[in-house]
Amino acid sequence: MSSTRLIALLYIAPLTLAADRPWAPTTAEQSIRRVATLHAARAAHTATTLPSGGILLAGGLTEGSGSLASVERFDPRDNSIHEVGSLAAPRAGHTATLLPDGRVLIAGGYNGDYLTSLEVFEPSTNRFHAAGSLAEARSGHTATLLPDGRILFAGGVGHGWTFLRSAELYDPATGRSELVGSMSVPRESHTATLLQDGHILIVGGHSGRRQNMMVYSSAEIFSLQSRRFESTGMLGTPRHKHDAVKMADGRVLVIGGADRSDRVYFATTEIYDPRRGIFARGPSMANARYKIAGTAILLPDGNVLVTSGAQTAELLDVARGQFRAVGGRLPAALRFAAAAPLRNGDVVIAGGYDDANQNSAGVWRFEYR
């Protein structure tokens, strides 16, 4: 599920391993606290930072596993929540992409069927309108904004619970989407990260279900010039339902995730070096986390905040190469929450569900100081 990430234009020294240093609490100045309540408790929704500074929260799952059409907007000036209309189609497991002109593109998802429909949110009117169709219905896919303004949609699940290898390029200027080269394997619960050279890194994920599930350690690179995917380095640990963040120096931090049983999930991280095309072991968190895609945020100082999947948020101090606890606690290890950064460096975290499959209506704010 996608959000705008702030990139610090600094060189960050190579990370050392968490085992080399003790895990420690953060300073009292940085904390997370509950600031608002959603009108609708939700999970598997999206959070997008708008040009105005607010956060758009769209769709998601209800507690009864239905899909929501409702949309809400968080105002950081007074921590208030406002309803702002509805999607044309209820959906969960969709993506939301901030377009260069300030609109937000909502794509695909699931509401009892897998969707091809696209909608665009107009911040000036708080309304949605149709924006064409995907070439293939998909949910649980990734969406990556390319430097030329087009969007790459990759993988996910389609009609008949079919796991997808396919990828497509959507052009907001024409409202058209066209299939491009396919990935080497079908993937859901993977990540896609735009690299500094304009290529896209696809990492991990799974295909199949139950006893037939395959969780991947493989990764591949999409080139806009060739419109094809090529294999790159291998993860040390196969993982899905993880997160990935491009760091300020251009490397990619892969965070948490789970094995094929979904009963074993990880506190480990790995770091992809685009220059060498390999993954290396990164610092470990204090808390194992999964179902966290889109909820790790790069902060203006180059550190990385990991917000969901455990009751305690953690901050990666990149210079020291270690995670540390953030003050304040979430009520549960929320899964499929959504997070997005604010202009001042704060981060908003909203919704998600707990181990009893109960959705949260909570909205929390990490205070960056």
Structural description of this entry:
By secondary structure, this protein is mainly beta. The protein has a single domain, classed as Neuraminidase, CATH 2.120.10.80. The protein has strands at residues 24-25, 31-37, 46-49, 55-58, 70-75, 80-86, 95-98, 104-107, 117-122, 127-133, 142-145, 151-154, 157-158, 162-163, 167-171, 176-180, 191-194, 200-203, 206-207, 214-215, 219-223, 228-231, 243-246, 252-255, 269-273, 278-281, 296-298, 304-306, 314-317, 322-325, 338-341, 347-350, 362-367.
Would you kindly provide a brief summary of this structure?
This protein has 369 residues and is mostly beta strands. Helices cover 0% and strands 38% of the residues.
Our count of domains comes out at 1
Number of helices: 0
CATH fold-level label: Neuraminidase
C-alpha-based Rg, rounded: 19 Å
Poorly predicted runs: 1-28
Strand-residue fraction?
35-45%
Strand order of the largest sheet: 1-30-29-28-27
Q: Superfamily at the CATH H level?
A: Kelch-type beta propeller
Looking at the overall shape, the CATH architecture is: 6 Propeller
Structural class: mainly beta
Helix content: under 10%
Number-wise, the strands total 33
- CATH class descriptor: Mainly Beta
Q: Cα distance, first to last residue?
A: 27 Å
The whole-number mean of residue pLDDT values reads 92
- What composes the largest sheet? 5 strands, mixed
Overall body shape: globular
